[in-house]
Task: inverse folding
């Protein structure tokens, strides 16, 4: 599972995700990418299940890069607990994703394989996504 080894603080504020991605919006490694179109918190479980879906579809062919990392602890209080008594304990880790952010990248696969793999991965994620292709200019 993806989670940080060490953090400065044990609990984090919820915060709001607004605006477009300032970084990580260009394809850096592969030829094909899965891009986020909505702001949302993506859980570590969802990232892992999307990664597994891609690898199963490609039968471990090609190279995959995961461009997001769950670094925000999300806390919850137990059910049937009265108000007050402090903040709940951290339950899971999440990644704050802004629109335009590249989530996954693929290389050394055909376009059909990339589309099939990314469409399966998109079904595991809680946001709308888009499959993009890196256009390399020929001089």
Result:
């Amino acid at each position: 599972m993806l989670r940080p080894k060490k953090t400065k603080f044990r609990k984090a504020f919820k915060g709001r995700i607004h605006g477009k991605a300032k970084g990580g919006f260009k394809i850096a490694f592969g030829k094909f990418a899965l891009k986020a179109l909505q702001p949302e918190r993506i859980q570590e479980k969802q990232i892992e299940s999307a990664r597994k879906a891609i690898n199963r579809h490609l039968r471990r062919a090609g190279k995959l890069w995961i461009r997001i990392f769950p670094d925000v602890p999300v806390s919850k209080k137990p059910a049937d607990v009265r108000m007050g008594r402090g903040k709940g304990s951290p339950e899971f880790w999440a990644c704050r994703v802004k629109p335009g952010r590249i989530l996954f990248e693929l290389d050394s696969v055909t376009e059909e394989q990339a589309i099939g793999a990314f469409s399966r991965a998109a079904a595991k994620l809680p946001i709308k996504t888009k499959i993009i292709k890196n256009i390399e200019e020929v001089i």
User: Anything to note?
Assistant: The beta strands are 32-36, 40-43, 63-66, 72-76, 89-97, 102-107, 129-133.
